Each structure stands twice: as C-alpha cells, then as structure tokens.
Amino acid sequence: MVTDMNRIAALKDRPKAILFLVLTATLWSLGGLLVKSIDSNPLAIAGMRSGIAAIIILIATGKPKLTWSLAQIGAALAYTGMVVLFVVATKNTTAANAILIQYTAPVYVAFLGAWLLKEKVKALDWITIVVVMGGMVLFFVDHINTKGVFGNILAAGSGISFACFVVFMRMQKDGSPIESVLLGNILSAIIGIPFIFGAAPDTKGWLCIVVLGVVQLGIPYILYSKAIKHVTALEGSIIPVIEPLLNPVWVFLLLGERPGKWALVGGIIVLAAVTFRCLIPLRKPQLNAEAQESARKFPTDT
Questions:
Q1: Distance (Å, rounded) from C-alpha 174 to C-alpha 14?
Q2: Alpha carbons 127 and 142: distance in angstroms, whole number
Q3: What torsion do the CA atoms of 98, 99, 105, 107 make, to the nearest 10 degrees?
Q4: Host domain of residue 119
Q5: In a domain, 22, yes or no
Q6: Based on the structure, what is the number of domains in the chain?
Q7: C-alpha span between 97 and 289 (Å, rounded)
C-alpha cells in the first residue's frame, strides 16, 4: 500500500518537475544575450553572477543543510567546473562549438547514471540522445568550425562537469540538493570576482549582472534542484538541451536577427525528440497506476 502511494505521489510530481526543467532552460537561455551586453572580463562576469545567485539561493532556502557528503561536495565542484570551464571555453572557441560540445553531457549521463545511480538506460533513451545530438549539429551547422582546439577541449570538460553535476544532484534525491548549488556558486564567485578589478562594468553592465544572478542563475537553479528529485539523471540533462535553441529566439525577438533554415530544422528535431521523450514515460506510469487501482477494486478469482 505504501509503495502504491509513493508511485501515485511520484506520478503527480513528475509533470511539475518537467515543467520546472523547461522553465529552468528558458531562464538559462537569457545568458548569451545578457553576457554580450556587459563589457568586462568573462571570469569577472561569471564570478559576480554566481555571487548574486548564491545570495538569492540563501534567501530562498534559509539556513543551509550542509552535510559535506560526497554527493554534496561532488555536485558543488562539478557545478564550479561547468560554469568556469564554459566561460573560458567560449573565449577560446566559437560560441556554437562551446555550447554544442557542452551539451554532449547526456551521453556521459547515460553511462554515469547506469553505473552510479543504477538508472537503466532504455532503447528510447539512446534513440533520443542520437536524435538530439543530430538536431544540435544541424542547429549549429552554419557556425561550427575546427578552430580553437584548446577552447573545444575546455568545452568538453564543461560537458563532463555538467554530467557529473546532474548525477551528483540526483544522488541527493532524498535530501536537499540545493546546498550543492549554493556551495558551487560561492566557489565560482571566489574564483571569478578578483578579475573584476581589471575592468569594472558600467551601470548598464551592473544591471545585466544583477539580472544574470537573479533571473538567469539563482531562480532556475532553485527550480532545477526541486526538479532533479523527481526525474531521472538522463532527463535532467536532456530536457535542458532546449536552452541553446532559445538563445537565437531572444536575439531574433530583440535584435531582429533571423536564424538560418538548418537552425530551424535542427531546433524542430530537438524539440520534437525532447517532447516525445517526456510524454511517453508520463503515459506509461499512468497506465500502470490505473491497472493497479483496477486490480485492487476488482480482484480476479484464483
């Protein structure tokens, strides 16, 4: 009976978790446009953004529950690596290369999740990964090049860090994973803020940094920390793939820059694959729950 109640509760929490992930990716996608509006050192931007995000998370969660467990520390370190490496990678390769390579994370999550979390990777998961990766390549095909090898390596490191972050966050599904994000932001701020003394932003830059810290980083990671408790690690890395697809949407709406035809095709493929991957598992548990309820009400004679 208790197991059945837990399944029903999980069924109710899952759609909300998916919605949180979609909102998270949407808010993350504001980063590119805002960062471009700030005239300062990229590490300084990353540090100040993380410092503000840490304050927002601390206000939202109250007294942090620091356990200093392997999962909590691992997620914090992975978060720092993900943020810092991506910023530096973007400076040493094209933005398209950086985001495309970073979002190879679902491939790593598939293996790490199966190994460390015992979350079985099904055929549907592998098909989704392949389709999503293919769509991402089409999306950025006009901007991908082989230059910036060092930046590409850093972007790969950011992707691995992203995967580790997702897995370590998922390890805390029965606890409070938001503390890992808090610690990661504090560490990122410590690393980045010293660079502010080289080139302090102007008033517009500071305004953008505040929006980055509150709207683009603080709030979405609060949502992500809630969502990761009710989805698999793989879903926690696949659904946010819509983030880079939304970046050109903001550019189009605010600056009038139209994406190319291959970008549109790739974006549609990725969105369709992610949507399909989210909806199919929702229907299957519902059918199982309905069957169990029917079996309890109308037991068969034996």
A1: 15
A2: 25
A3: -90
A4: 2-288
A5: yes
A6: 1
A7: 43
Give a yes or no: residue 283 inside a domain.
yes
3-state per-residue secondary structure call for the chain:
CHHHHHHHHHHHHHHHHHHHHHHHHHHHCCHHHHHHCCCCCHHHHHHHHHHHHHHHHHHHHCCCCCCCCHHHHHHHHHHHHHHHHHHHHHHHCCHHHHHHHHCCHHHHHHHHHHHHHCCCCCHHHHHHHHHHHHHHHHHCCCCCCCCCHHHHHHHHHHHHHHHHHHHHHHHCCCCCCHHHHHHHHHHHHHHHHHHHHCCCCCHHHHHHHHHHHHHHHHHHHHHHHHHCCCCCHHHHHHHHHHHHHHHHHHHHHHHCCCCCHHHHHHHHHHHHHHHHHHHHHHHHHHHHHHHHHHHHHCCCCC
- Whether 145 is covered by a domain: the verdict is yes
Those residues whose C-beta lies under 8 Å from the C-beta of residue 287, and which sit 6 or more positions away, are none
pLDDT of the chain, 302 residues: tens digit per residue: 434 444 544 557 888 999 999 999 999 988 877 887 888 888 888 899 999 999 999 999 888 999 999 999 999 999 999 988 988 888 788 777 888 889 999 999 999 999 999 998 989 899 999 999 999 988 888 777 777 889 889 999 999 999 999 999 999 999 999 999 999 999 999 998 888 887 778 889 999 999 999 999 999 999 999 999 999 999 999 999 998 888 778 877 877 777 778 888 998 899 899 988 887 765 555 445 444 444 455 455 54
pTM above 0.70, yes or no: yes
Q: Which amino acid is at 130?
A: V
Structure-block tokens of residue 10? 């999980």
